[in-house]
Amino acid sequence: MTSKPSSALAGFLLACLSLSSTTSLAEKAPKEEVSKPPFEEIFKKQEVELLALIKTDREKGVIELEKVANQLIEDYPEEAMPYVWLNAFSRMTPDEEKSLKVMKRLAALKSSNPDILSLVERAKGELKKRESLGKPLDISFTALGGDKIDLSKMKGKVVIVDFWATWCGPCIAVLPELKEVYREFNPQGLEVVGISLDSDEGKLKKFTKDNDMPWPQYYDGLGWQNRLAVKFGVGSIPAMWIVDKNGNLADLNAGSDLPGKIKKFLAQE
Fold it and tell me: The whole model's pTM is what?
């Protein structure tokens, strides 16, 4: 999975986190003083300690991550990385209630730091994505080639929504399975809609042609700031969703047993 770059730690945390500690990193976080150490000095020290902890105990580590992030936010409120860590915590904690609370906190942030504001938009998108599960998915656009795509008008079909990019290795790795699923089930009512996070239109067109990808592609050239990716809080790719025959978002992790899930949704009335 390719995650939005922010730091080595942030990317690693979003991919696979396991932390532990016998002492509290939050206790080591800088306390408010007349003269605080530079943020980078404190951040690098915390990053090293967190990375060292990642390899041992996930449950304790996720708890510790929240503590560290909150302490750094208290001491350095205009720095972006503590909020990135808090965002990582919200996505990894098994406590759904706490996750939602943290995500709402991030979505309500006010700041002059553009990196924090970008995180705010992602948090709003994540909330929108969670709220959309089981409901109609609001996606409509003019695809490359000029076709008008509107998921609200595709009821009766099962639709895979694929967030991807030509530069994303994991996306390319799962492409053969996606193509095979499309070939097998398209005659039965399956459609695929691509949401490309590319920034080179020519490369995207050539890739889809060379790799026999006949389904429509949304492209706005904004890369990680792709409007639909931001709108729905997509922070890592590939991300495959399934929209059922009623037009409702039914699955946010379609890449897991994709053929089996498509069979199930096509069989539903």
Answer: 0.65
